[in-house]
Amino acid sequence: MTPHSPLVPGLRPVPPARPRRGERGRWTTTAVDGRSELSPRRAREYVRRVCGRWRVPAAQAENAVLIVSELVTNAVVHGVGDRVTVVVTLTGRDRLTVSVTDRGPEAGGEAGEDGSGGTPPPPPDEPCPAAEGGRGLWLVSVLATEVGCEPVTGVGRGTGTRIWARIDPPEAACGA
Predict the structure, then answer these.
(1) Exposure string (b/e) for 99-134, b if CB count within 10 Å is 16 or more?
(2) Residues 154/136, Cβ–Cβ less than 8 Å
(3) Which residues contact 156 (CB under 8 A, 6 or more apart)?
(4) Is 32 left (phi over 0), alpha (psi -120 to 50) or beta?
(5) pLDDT of residue 176
(6) With 90 as the cut, is the pLDDT of residue 70 above it?
(7) CA–CA dist 19, 32 (Å, integer)
(8) Cβ distance 163 to 99 under 8 Å?
(9) How far apart are CA 119 and CA 107, in angstroms?
């Protein structure tokens, strides 16, 4: 994976949340509480149900569930809003994309006490074995085929961040 982005070094801009006009696909969205430690579990359950309904292969679905859990956890811990939006998109036969949007620090500096400023750090090349945290974005980058993020406006009363991940079926990701 070789991601790119002007917002966060190493990440790509976000693809469309919904299938493009003329492109076959499905999408669904939900919102979870941006302040509740139960939100990652609720997001996992939602993505698992959606993937089951859409008959997404089990390994691909479980990667999506884990990725959404990590991204929602980050939004709850680091965001400043009371709502986190999760979008699941399936285009073509097997292109699964998940995105998580939160109201959080604006791009361009350290986060202030009022929630202004700051950008998410790029995922580390490899987590420190002794560290208690810092593995979430690294894990997302390992499980996803592509990862990206972008700032968004109109989220609550300010700006936020949308992070997305495309998860290919294991056989496609391995080049089989």
Answers:
(1) bbbbbbbbbeeeeeeebeebbbebbeeeeeeeeeee
(2) no
(3) 81, 82, 83, 103
(4) beta
(5) 52
(6) yes
(7) 23
(8) yes
(9) 5
Beta-bridged to residue 89, according to DSSP, are: 27, 97
Mean pLDDT of the chain: 75
| C-alpha to C-alpha distance for 18 and 62, rounded to whole angstroms | 21
Spatial neighbors of 68 by CB under 8 A, at least 6 apart, are 40, 43, 44, 47, 86, 98, 100
- Would you state the pLDDT for residue 85? 92
DSSP symbol at 6: S
Backbone φ and ψ for 46, nearest 5 degrees, come out as -65, -50
Other residues' Cβ atoms within 10 Å of the Cβ of residue 142: 14
pLDDT tens for 74-121 read: 999 888 888 899 999 998 778 899 999 987 654 433 343 433 333 444
Please name the fold of domain 27-173: Heat Shock Protein 90 (3.30.565)
d(CA 141, CA 2): 10
DSSP-assigned letter for residue 12: B
- 120, 80 Cβ separation under 8 angstroms: no
H or E stretch at 134? none
pLDDT at 37: 93
| Calpha distance 63→166 (Å, rounded) | 10
